[in-house]
Amino acid sequence: MPLIDSFNRTIDYLRVSVTDRCNFRCIYCMPEEGAAIAPKKDLLTYEEIVRVVRVAADCGVTKVRITGGEPLVRKDIVELISQIGSIDGIRDLSMTTNGFLLDQVAEKLAQGGLHRINISLDTLRPERFAPIARRGELASVLAGIDAARAAGLTPIKLNVVAMRGVNDDEVLDFCRLTLNEDVDVRFIELMPISWSTGDDSMRDFYALSGKSDSSRVSTLTLYPNRTEASFNRLMDTGGVMATDRMLDASAMRKLFISASEMRQGIEREFGPMQAAEVVTNGPAKSFRIDGAIGTVGFISQISSDICANCNRLRLTADGHLRPCLMADGEVDLRGPLRSGATDRDIADLFDLTVLHKPFEHRLEDGHAPRSRHMSQLGG
Q1: With a cut of 50, which residues of the chain have pLDDT below it?
Q2: Which CATH number do you get for residue 345?
Q3: Using CB atoms within 10 A as the burial measure, which of 41, 43, 296, 306 is most buried?
Q4: For the whole model, what pTM was predicted?
């Protein structure tokens, strides 16, 4: 049976985080010293992940994306790709990576059944790479991109988190890549993970970013014979990261740059762009510069409403199923998996999670996820 949420959306996409570890410390994602990580015993085994994906496929999921943390730091990741790639019903298998280790495994990933790859890359300038990522170097990521292209992991998508005064002066440089290369550059608005819950300045921020108010659905339908306690509302951890450890709430708001502002700047340089179709483009709205081979896309989860067509769930590395990236609620799968649950039991938990899926995030009301960093959510 297909997974249908309370708003008649078909949920057919599962993002699977295989680790909460990362070899980078990007300033908008993690403190310099790293975020708290789950004990290894709490991470789902590959056998457990494959079982969950198989159940998901039986429930109508056709698209799986492997994420982290950084998925390539987990040992034997190619073996997991091979197992998931052999599951009946999974028609699209992709991965998001920072690309640092990609050149070592790109060909093996493709041979194992990986179809496509997204690479997070916030700068094209070697001297700027370390201040943003705080680990690694640009040359290794560029080598990974070349290896992915050679292995046929296309279309290659470059995910660029745009930050005012940090890398927004490179927007046009990224766009120039699309002129002669078959690459999809996607500019992502700075996501408010760790922004303060209940911070009234969020409303002022939304007024500045141009997002209008809309009617909200404040209640969620519970799966039959379940109680609210079955859906874990995680507790507010309190406070925000200090700016010397990670961008805090105030800093993130100051660095925000909207998709519309970026598009205006691009079109001043290159002229009007035309709408473009990109395979499995997800939430991005894509365009093509006149005569370009590749495309330019925008993921505007802050300034524009992209929630209405959301079709995804997220499985955390420690085995919790989340209906929404931007809401603190999740359903435990690890416990049932390790205590004798049947596949039907796990499928019921998918139903429960889907019926808790909100219509859209509530960021403009000051509600943002507080229980986990982005590296722990799977992005």
Answers
A1: 195-244
A2: 3.20.20.70
A3: 296
A4: 0.83
